[in-house]
Design goal:
Structural class: alpha+beta
Number of strands: 3
CATH topology: GIY-YIG endonuclease
Distance between the termini: 52 Å
CATH superfamily: GIY-YIG endonuclease
Largest sheet: 3 strands, antiparallel
């Protein structure tokens, strides 16, 4: 039998690290559309940078090259960039590709 205190200094002190903004992380993300569909993709850069790239593709009408821009131009639906969110953080390349495929499959079935 051993005594262990229930309150330790570590438990009493808040985390020293500041929380990381999800928009500055890399990984799998979703961007909803006004029609209810979601675009699911993955990025090796921060989510903020990738969203700027998507916005540029839509504004420059690069529909032949990019799926999201094609959806925006062909259907005239509003792409809700401000509601984009990171679904899974990126850790390992193969694991991330598998997670992206799972998220796409979940998006198709719902």
């Amino acid at each position: 039998m051993a005594f262990t205190p229930s309150n330790t200094i570590q438990k009493l002190i808040d985390s020293i690290k500041d929380p990381i903004n999800p928009n500055k992380q890399k990984g799998i993300y979703t961007i909803p559309s006004s029609c209810g569909k979601e675009y699911i993709g993955e990025t090796c850069r921060s989510l903020n940078i990738r969203l700027k790239e998507h916005a540029a593709d839509i504004s420059r009408n690069r529909a032949t090259k990019y799926t999201l821009a094609e959806h925006a131009s062909s259907s005239s639906h509003y792409i809700c960039m401000e509601e984009a969110k990171l679904v899974k953080r990126k850790d390992h390349y193969l694991k991330t590709k598998i997670k992206e495929a799972i998220e796409i499959e979940k998006g198709i079935t719902t």
